[in-house]
# Entry
Amino acid sequence: MPRPKSSQRSPEQANSAENPESARGLAIDTEGLNLTYGDGTEAVSNVSLEVPEGEFFGFLGPNGAGKTTSIKVFATLLKPTGGEVRVNGFDAEESPRRVRESIGYMAQETSVDEELTARENIRFACEAYGVPRDERDRRIDELLELVDLADVGDKKAEEFSGGMKKRLDAATALVHQPPLVFLDEPTTGLDPKARNRLWDYFRRINEQGTTIFLTTQYLEEADELCDRIAVILDGEIVATGSPDELKRRVGGEILDIDVEGDAGESEQAAEVARDTDLFEADATVEVTDEGITVTSKQARQRGTDLLVALRDEGLTVTGFNVRAPTLDDVFLAITGEHVEAVADDIPSEGTAEVDR
Amino acid sequence: MSSPTESSGDGGVAGEAGQSRVAARSGNSFAGDFWVNFKRWNLKAVRNPFVLVVSLVQPIIFLVLFTQVFGQVATGAISRGGASITYETYLVPAIAIQVSLAAAATSGVGLVNDIENGMFEKVLVSPMNRAAVFLGKTAAEIMRILIQIGIILVLGVALGAEISTGIVGALGIMLVGVVFSMWFVSLSNTIAIITKDQESTIIGANLLQFPLLFVSTAFLPLEVLPDWIQTVATYNPITYGVDAARALMLDRDVMTVVEVTQFSGVWNTIVPALAVLLALDLVLGSVAVYMLSKASSSDVQ
# Structure
């Protein structure tokens, strides 16, 4: 298969395989990454990313956007069909084993050997990654402590809850103290308590200097953890920035108001919301099936005033809710399309506009 | 298209990451990777004695019931050739082969388990040598087959069977069991990769076992079987495994599907039988290795 490579990079390859420190401190460096499956599905197209060492980086996107495919390419589980991938300074195609030695990888599906105990799972990982024999016991104890499984270290993993298995899985990805860790939707399917614990733990290893590349479907999670986020949609990066920057694009928090009646009443309510000077000038008001949605920085503070204004107009409010923006809101702001609706077609000008 | 590269004020942290990079270098060798996986699969076998016991129980039931129920009738049939032997002696080598067949069937089940619980991918993303990974697993299975055949031989002798070639012959039977098992290990792993489904792998391997056993020389000599079974038995790998093991058990040339006379005594059975089995191992083994390397390759499918 033809694999276009930028010519100015090739001469460096042999050199940098021996000397990763020459890679300008980038944990991940990709240029024009493409991955097209045999059946013609373009899972990832033209993804260029630079993740500096030590960063907590988030890959945010809906199901099927290409997050897992990208992470598998970075972790050498898939060969790209086009473009360049350098991980910790090593070319992922030229020296996959070097890359594997230098990364930790936590798959989306929890991967532990349930027939073995927590301790044995971590020991196997230590051996697989060649952790020196005299360091293993100490490392195993440390990791069990770190993920709060020390008291159940000798229990078989099959007795663990989903959250405990996830934590064990995370521990096995860290045995060799990798400078870069990939976490593929690590908290999907966990209850809030288990999720918060895992978050703490990821923050801790990031504070210790580990670069983290995390994928998630939840803006909340990316906001909570990440220094920087790339938003991926249909295999393409449509926006990059800090969580705050992305949220700013949305324009604040969201106030959903249900109004009794039909479209006429909703329209009337929207008029009220637009005419009042409760919200800043760039706040948006939309008519929905149930009523209206206001996106504003003052959504929380001025919500009650709006409800009063609606009542004064003779409208009956049957429900209301103030919430933080979700992934869907970010997509809506970035591409002008809802996540559900973009699966088959994204307007190209929408993509180009935000892709700076 | 390029992304902003300013890191958000964590330059100091990045420096530490640079240091731990050096610590990440692992000291893996082929032998080390082999050993790690050999240990893991042995540990799993010990942890899950159910599999061990189940693959022994059925053959043991066969051994005990067949000798008790058919012993009287069968002795006539097996003694046609000359020197009289007990049905226990006749049956033990067949049960040894049955054990290695049952144990081999679990090899694919182990693989499919690993695929299902993510350990397969976890191993692929590690720096371990992949050939060493699969060799370590297979070696653990071979060890299990050796032990299980050993148990059957001891049990058989306890029940009154006689190994004419003694200890050396017993070790030979164990070895025949291993050579025999490899084609079925390959087959069950191939089924595992194709189906990627535990139930299908178990059913696929087990469905084959019983009919194959009966249409071979396992329970009765070729000449007393109906014509069509004689024909099938000639092409059935189990016949070759059983005949080789039985030749060692009885210390004489027992093979009737193929007549070889260039060698002397037992070797007239063992040489052609092992030749057939090794050829089969090679063919199916190549298929399994091809399937495995395809499944673990990072090429886009």
Q: What stands out?
A: Chain A touches chain B through 70 residues (CB under 8 Å). Residues 49 and 164 of chain A are 32 Å apart (CA to CA). Chain A has two domains: 12-246, 252-324.
